[in-house]
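Chapter review: from sequence to fold.
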Amino acid sequence: MATVLKIRNIHMKPFFIIFFLLFSLCSYSQVYDPAKVNKKAAKLYQDAYQKASNEGDFKEGIRILEEAVKIDPGFADAFLSLGGMYGELKNYGPAVLNYQKARQIDSAYFIDYNLSYSINFAGKGEFEKAMERINEFLSIANLNEASLKAATYRKKCYQFAIDFQKSGASGSYAFTPRNLGDNVNTEISEYFPTLTIDSRQLIYTRRARGVNEDFYETRLNDSGWIKSTPLPGAINTNFNEGAQAISQDGQWMIFTGCNFQEGYGSCDLYMSYLTPDGWSSPENLGSNINTESWESAPSLSADKRDLYFMSRRTGGYGGSDLYVSHRMPNGKWSGPENLGAEINTMGDETCPFIHADNQTLYFTSSGHQGYGGDDLFMVRKVANGKWSNPRNLGYPINTIENEGSLVITADGTTAYYASERSDSRGGLDLYTFEMRNDVRPVKTLWIKGKVFDKKTKNGLPSAVELADLASKEIISKIQTDETGNYLITLPVGKDYAFNVNRRGYLFYSENFSLKEKSPDSTYHIDIPLQPLETNAIVVLNNIFFATGKYELKTESQVELDNVAKLMKENPTLVVQINGHTDNMGKAADNLSLSDNRAKAVVDYITSKGVAAARMKYKGFGAGQPVADNATESGRAKNRRTELKVITQ
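The token string follows.
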């Protein structure tokens, strides 16, 4: 199976089988005597056992047991088995009610079932009641080792849940997952959703014909998600493909392929590309990524530079660990780095999802303390590229069940995940829900467009870079496609320098001030690059000065370093830095200010090892406006620093 979604029961055996065995093994009590059960009811009980044990048909088993308790309302074992069957169907309300009926018949006979009773209270989110029941179970003298271990584990989980509730983290949050409907979900399982940046294309794994996993896609229109179809092209095969990640621009797919002939192990990571004819044939990512162990569940950063995935390779901390590999300049992937003991445990860490903000990572873990089974956790990048301590997403996002992968939209508000809920069409279905505020990633907008030659209008493959103006840290660095198309994300809350570079051209720069306010739309910016030729001029948009001052702000460093790099890559290049102001103030003062600002830029560049003879400067004051000085936006455009090519 390609995915790491585990569809396993909470308990070691079906409740009904356990109760049927206990029906014949438990000592009789003074109140309830199994030997005195109505014979017709006992026969129905046996029929229900056959349905549940041999056919796995719990719904029919419940129907038969309901008949049995009508005939004999004192049939405690039938109520116990009803509780067990409802629990297997994750219908915890009726499960608890039937346990209560059995307990009312004979509390002494019932005491051994308090463990199962507690689990169903926890399934309802009633953790205080679950704690009462588990404490009663633990009061039994001479519990065997297995029972003691199971009960102690559950008690620890309940205490975690109670403490989380008392922390008030959930507040008034309402968890209301919505099934994506019949156009997406079927009577078989759908899971592992993945989204493009605009949240309008959803690709997921479907288990077809009971065994084979393939990819399907649906798209969002004004009426909702359209009818799903298999992915076009050569990506789906007779082998298992699943646990996939689509790149944010919709052009790459990295996924898990199992039992492929060219594989290094049972399950490897593969790449497919979107072509005019659909998705290309899978390509194995190679020995830097794949091993003879199990690699699965990839997640690709928005800039396509970082690949997160899970692996069971040797040298980890436990069962499956999370790793990251970086795409090198030659297009190959680096050797994977284990995300470390802060994230990985002796248990299983799976299903990583790196949000478009490139700062927030979600994953599932059975090793960190939670509610039982696999819970969803989140970490954020902190100083020096480290990760924060994992945070459990809490109830009701996490439950006593095993939670699987989720993806979150770029704006951080909406999540998609797979679950087997009461309104499932069959098996796992895809659902959507609103993320709780305190566990949302950073709201992220994006820029898309095309880089092209200003003269010929032809698209240009180029490097596109986004840097945090305050920290000078490169947040994102991508390469356009062969025709110059690009997509880059902008996490809000910071101010950014945006630069586009290509050898033989003047670089393009822009800045986005998102620290104080959040724009309400995305950007579409087509970028004309000016060929590097005499008299070519580019505006340096990321050079900053205080009002009326000519000392460079530290935020200018990213841009200035790019100018120095341009000069060093073109050793014969001679340029002039031009300073301009708006028309506010005296003309003589503006002329002096613009001249000093241009000189400050030249001084910085020469301090980086560029010969002073190659750098000239001149101030023009307000004499060469490019916009109307009557408005603030116009004056802002006029206050500019330019780079002009003198000679090549």
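Two observations follow directly from the output. The chain has twelve helices and 34 strands. The chain has four domains: 15-167, 180-439, 443-531, 534-648.
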